[in-house]
Structure formats: C-alpha cells, structure tokens
Amino acid sequence: MLKHPRLLFVIGLLIAGQSIGSAAELESGRYTVAQSWSQEQDFERSYFVEVPVAAAERPLPLFIFLHGNGGNAEKAQGMARRYPQVAREHIMVFAQGYQKSWNIVSERSQAPDREFIEVIVTELAEFSNVQASGAVLMGSSNGAALVNQVAIETRLDHFSYYITVVSQLNAWQHDSTAFKAKGSDNNYTEAIAPLKGKCLMNVSGANDLLVPYHGGLSKGIRAKDGKLAFLDAERSIYLWAQHYGYEGEPLSQPRESSEEMDAFSYLDGAIIHYKMNTRAHNAGGGLTEAMLLEFLNQSNR
Q1: pTM (2 decimals)?
Q2: What are the distances in angstroms from CA 202 to CA 4, 32, 169?
Q3: Domains annotated on the chain, with CATH
Q4: How do the pLDDT tens digits run along the chain, 301 residues long?
C-alpha cells in the first residue's frame, strides 16, 4: 500500500463564493484546492479551467497540463493557442506547482502533487459537461516528471493518455527492475505496478543536456545524492511498452525517420516516443497539433 501524510483537501470555485459542487456545468475560471503538508497549512493551490463552446453540446474530456520548473499555470495557458483543435475538443486545465515546481526527488516543493492532480480530476468529473473518462495528463520537463509519477502511482482510472515532454523516466522512478512509488519521504523504495490500459507519448531532444537523451546524470537537476540520473529515453519508452503489454524486443531502429525527428512506436502507436534530432530541452517545440491529434485518437488499450 502507498503511504501518504494526512492531507486536507478543500476545493472551491472563486466566483462569487460559489462552491464547486453547486454548479451543474463547469465554467471557465480560477479554482483552488486547499492542502496541508510539511511546508504549508490549508494552502490554497490554484488551477485554471478553459471550457470550450462544444462543452455546451456534449461532455468533453479533461486535458490537464503541468508546467516546467520555474513556470506557472497562467503562462502555460498559451499552450492552448498552439493547439486550437485540441482546445476545442477538450476542457483545458492548467495547474500551478508549489514554488513553481513539482515534488519529484529533490525539488523545492514537498507538496503532495499526485493527490493534487487526483483531486482536480475527480472533482471536475462530477460536472455534467465533463466526460469522466478519457482524461489527458501532459507535462513539460519537471511537469512531465510528475506525469510519469502519476502514471506510476495513481489508482484512478480517469486518465487514458499520458504525455511527457523532455522528461523520460528518471532512475528513481524506475531502477531497471521495477517502477517505484515516491513514498512520503521521497526515497522511491516501494516497487509498484502502474495501472494498465493507457496510451503514453514521450518527446525528447537528442541534444538535451538537462535531461540527457541517452541517460545518465543531468547537468543541472539536483537529487539527494548529487545530480538527478535519467534512463535512456528509448529504454524508458520500451519499459512502458513492456508494462502495457508489448512482448517483443526493443526497437533498434525507428518506425519512421526524418532529418528532424525519429518515431519509435509500440502497440500500434498507443506507446510512442519522438526523438527530436535537432533539438535540446526545447524539444516540445517540435510537437505539432497533428502529432497530438493522432495520438489522442488512439483507443486506450
């Protein structure tokens, strides 16, 4: 069993004192979750919701985005303008990390971030214009590391799609033998089997030094024992593919290749890794809306 500190969750809509459970339909706006942990008591954490016009006609799935270290939810909202069709077909949610970070290994934040994301998705799923299944969780860099951790640990079945941009599995999340739960002390000692039946995409830069493509120590991200170590990006996606049911050997060559990008695809595209050959930690800039839509049209397995 996962062990977590005692947490207080209170969630409310900051519009004229209206409580989140009192509205039949979710509306665009700023929402909060109150949590208590070692650094804070009853701390109100923000996230922003953008509800498209189509949600008035039919329930739409959630698309939750997690910013990178040093980023914030409001600036991340610009992502929706990069992917207008995705934003028309999903209720977009932009969550704010405590101290502009997410609690992975040795970040500034020690907040219970997986629980924060779980409260968001379970509470919003209660609204009549929100589709309870088929949720997407996408993150960049430190935010992608939290996406990996949610995919590893959550017992919720709301999520169908995970997207990690410039952060494959780190060596604490998978020790080459098993996936690991973070634990309340961030020591990643407990082996855990993630839920199956999901689709997962990773985008990494071949020239990335902060999150090294071929694995090894980061040039800048700290860990308890020095610098944070990462798995090889292609090894990382293979481990996910194995977990989700792939029984073959790792791909030695990409399924598709170009000067700018190589694609390593498993399970008919349900698990896919894009190697951005000319990019570094800015590899997310090569992720087009067409690539996103193709992935999101996969039937979750």
Answers
A1: 0.92
A2: 28, 29, 10
A3: 10-296 (3.40.50.1820)
A4: 343 433 433 444 443 333 454 458 999 999 999 999 999 999 999 999 999 999 999 999 999 999 999 999 999 999 888 999 999 999 999 999 999 999 999 999 999 999 999 999 999 999 999 999 999 999 999 999 999 999 999 999 999 999 999 999 999 999 999 999 999 999 999 999 999 999 999 999 999 999 999 999 999 999 988 999 999 999 999 999 999 999 999 999 999 999 999 999 999 999 999 999 999 999 999 999 999 999 999 754 4
* Residues facing residue 263 across a β-bridge: 256, 274
Report the amino acid identity of residue 200.
L
The pairing of beta strand 271-276 with beta strand 261-266: antiparallel
CB 90 within 8 A of CB 60: yes
